[in-house]
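Final report, closing paragraph on structural work. Over the funding period we assembled a curated collection of sequence-structure pairs, and we close with a single example.
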Amino acid sequence: MGVAIRTAGEGDRELIVRLLDEAFQDDPVSGWVFPGAEDRRAKHPGLMAAFTDIVLAAGRIDVMEDGSACALWLSVPADEGHSDPDGDAEDEGPAQVREAVDPDNERIEAIGRLTAAVHPTGRTHEYLWMIGVAPGRQGEGLGTALIEAVLDRCDREGLPAYLEASNARSRKLYERLGFEPAGPALDLPDGPAMWPMWREPRPHRSA
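Its predicted structure, as stored:
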């Protein structure tokens, strides 16, 4: 599509946070985490900053060279578990994010625990945590280009990929890219649904 993709670094942090904040302000899940519009405008950027910092440290962020879109990926090993019922050591992340962003908002921690509980285990895979496209650039295929760049590598290396779709529009995009339902929808308490989705690698054809 003529726009280069590069790996983001620490110097891109503000750009990534702004992109994610703008892209997800009106997302159903963000609206559930921060029900009040004024509260969401004030605190949502902090949550996006926390997510950005986690992925900058432990994963990879791809960004369009013109700053119009970004995708946050984590490589999840086969032996990484998400089902500790007691919420011990490995499960401290959601509580830490809540403490850093808004200690009084239980839903910040809940969203992390709920998505972790349905995250598939037992196979190494690439996890698309979030993808954000600037509101004025949505519908141009930027998100598809970012995702396909990683899916092509997944196909070459025989790796599956996983994500949670947070709205019906993104769910349809992911279906077109080969993702299928990975279990039942995750219904947030008194809130919208999220759709866990899994993609098996496709046979790679050499040129």
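Residues 83-89 have pLDDT under 50 and may be disordered. The two ends are 20 Å apart (CA to CA). We thank the funder for supporting this effort.
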